[in-house]
Amino acid sequence: MEHHVLLINDKLRQVLVDLESYFSINLNSEVIDKVFKDAEHDQVSYKTYVFYRESHWLFPTWEITGAVEEYEPETLLIESNGGFGKRKKFDEFFSGR
């Protein structure tokens, strides 16, 4: 499973907006805000985030998740899990960045 490394800065906010547009989805804005707050106030612990979750009776659950590793508060690892063909499209989104 491939993850994409992004710096937690204003460019990340734009990437997330672009991701929403690309997939026609709404990421959880509270989770996005938490990423930025955690980057400022908790710079030592491992953290995980679920930006989006979609369940469908026919396809596997699709999630867009992120993680910040210990002592790496400025870097978000983001990935797509599940869904039918979603991960490939997710990776294509990031291939041009």
Mind explaining what this structure looks like?
With 97 residues, this protein is α+β, with helices and mostly antiparallel strands. It has three helices and four strands; from the N terminus they run E-H-H-E-E-E-H. The protein has helices at 10-23, 29-41, 86-95; strands at 4-7, 47-54, 62-68, 75-82. It has a four-stranded antiparallel beta sheet. The radius of gyration is 13 Å and the shape is globular. The model has no long low-confidence stretch (mean pLDDT 92).
Distance between the termini: 18 Å
Secondary-structure content class: alpha+beta
Shape summary = globular
Multimeric state of these chains?
single chain
Could you say how many structural domains there are in total?
A: 1
Indicate the low-confidence ranges by residue numbers.
none
Q: How would you write the strand order of the largest sheet? A: 1-4-3-2
Major β-sheet annotation: 4 strands, antiparallel
What are the secondary-structure elements, in order, as H or E? Answer: EHHEEEH
Strand content: 25-35%
What's the count of strands? 4
Q: What portion of residues is helical?
A: 25-40%
Radius of gyration: 13 Å
Number of helices: 3
Question: Can you give the mean pLDDT?
Answer: 92
